[in-house]
């Protein structure tokens, strides 16, 4: 039996529970693609999986990867092509991108033509697939609309800023640190505010937003709804503020009337309702290649240093995407 090396969650705990092990090498069947992993992004969901806080997880985690197509039994894609793999049960119901090889459903694979280095490509799949789906599939963001992004300097937040500014939305974004205000302004954000649970006081005399993307989570859910106009949409798609539920939630008393509230979880990417083929990932790569957007990862770690990558992830101080590169 052929084997490969993989990073495995040996038990629930801190970064030290991530161990290197030899495991069986997978093979693709019809409807799957086998990717030789060159690099992968590190995501907060993987931190929660490592801690034992997620509902479903695989010992070989990793929600995304970039690499070379090694096998494609259905001939949907060419063997030897560069590709992105994202979600499709990766790291949850099936082994994920923390292995040397990974099988991914065809519906969750995107072949990519690019001269960008692997670490730059690895910063894109989950972040831009999620941000695009949030803004255009769920929020139906339009030119000229006023959009609030809570958590604007998170990885998904920055991708959402690029996408929203590109379509002509008027973006307000929040961040926990004033030192990051200038970064958001340079990206085209019209108004930057310090993130906090009493954000509503800053906007008391201003019109409410047409659309709101809440990446902070349950701790600001009700306030985010109140900041959105009747007939507008508020979408929750992140839990940067933690996983604790809203305490003593009473919709009749606490929720604003007329605001459309919905949830997005990236695990649905590639399904019938959220096809990856709808997301213009190749166009996004081109914009980054042309220098129109900066999506360079903030930190790049070697595959042998996964525990350091997760320690940085736990600190919430990365200020951007953390990427791990495999050197063969």
What can you tell me about this protein's structure?
This protein is of the alpha/beta class. The chain is built from nine helices and 15 strands. The strands form three sheets. Strands 3, 4, 5, 6, 7, 14 and 15 form a seven-stranded mixed beta sheet that branches. Helix 7 (251-254) links the parallel strand 12 (228-236) and strand 13. The longest helix has 14 residues, at 125-138. The protein is globular and about 65 Å long.
Give the helix/strand layout.
Layout (H helix, E strand, L loop, with lengths): L2 E7 L8 E7 L7 E11 L1 H8 L12 E8 L10 E5 L14 E5 L3 E3 L6 H5 L2 H14 L7 E5 L4 H12 L3 E6 L5 H6 L4 E4 L14 E6 L6 H6 L1 E9 L14 H4 L5 E4 L17 H9 L9 E4 L3 H10 L6 E4 L3
Parallel strand pairs: 8-9, 8-11, 9-10, 11-12, 12-13, 14-15
Antiparallel strand pairs: 1-2, 3-4, 3-6, 3-15, 4-5, 5-7
Helix pairs in contact: 3-4
């Amino acid at each position: 039996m052929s084997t490969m090396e993989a990073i495995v969650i040996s038990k629930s705990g801190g970064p030290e529970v991530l161990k290197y092990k030899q495991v069986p090498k997978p093979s693709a069947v019809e409807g799957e693609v086998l990717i030789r992993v060159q690099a992968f992004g590190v995501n907060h969901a993987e931190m929660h999986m490592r801690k034992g806080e997620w509902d479903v997880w695989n010992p070989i985690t990793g929600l995304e990867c970039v690499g070379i197509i090694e096998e494609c039994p259905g001939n949907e894609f060419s063997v030897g092509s560069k590709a992105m793999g994202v979600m499709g049960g990766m790291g949850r119901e099936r082994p994920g991108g923390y292995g040397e090889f990974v099988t991914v459903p065809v519906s969750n694979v995107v072949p990519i033509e690019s001269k960008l280095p692997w670490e730059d490509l690895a910063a894109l799949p989950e972040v831009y697939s999620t941000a695009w789906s949030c803004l255009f599939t769920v929020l139906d963001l339009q030119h000229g609309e006023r959009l609030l992004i809570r958590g604007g300097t998170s990885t998904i937040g920055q991708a959402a800023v690029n996408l929203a500014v590109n379509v002509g939305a008027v973006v307000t974004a929040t961040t926990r640190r004033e030192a990051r205000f200038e970064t958001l302004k340079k990206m085209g954000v019209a108004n930057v505010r310090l993130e906090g649970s009493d954000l509503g006081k800053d906007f008391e005399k201003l019109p409410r937003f047409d659309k709101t993307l809440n990446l902070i989570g349950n701790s600001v859910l009700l306030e985010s709804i109140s900041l959105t106009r009747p007939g507008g949409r508020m979408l929750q798609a992140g839990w940067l503020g933690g996983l604790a539920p809203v305490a003593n939630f009473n919709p009749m008393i606490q929720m604003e009337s007329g605001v459309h509230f919905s949830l997005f979880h990236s695990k649905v990417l590639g399904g019938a309702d959220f096809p990856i083929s709808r997301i213009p990932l190749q166009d996004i790569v081109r914009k980054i290649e042309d220098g129109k957007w900066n999506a360079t990862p903030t930190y790049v770690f070697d595959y042998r240093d996964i525990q350091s990558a997760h320690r940085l992830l736990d600190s919430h101080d990365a200020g951007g995407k953390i990427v791990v590169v495999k050197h063969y």
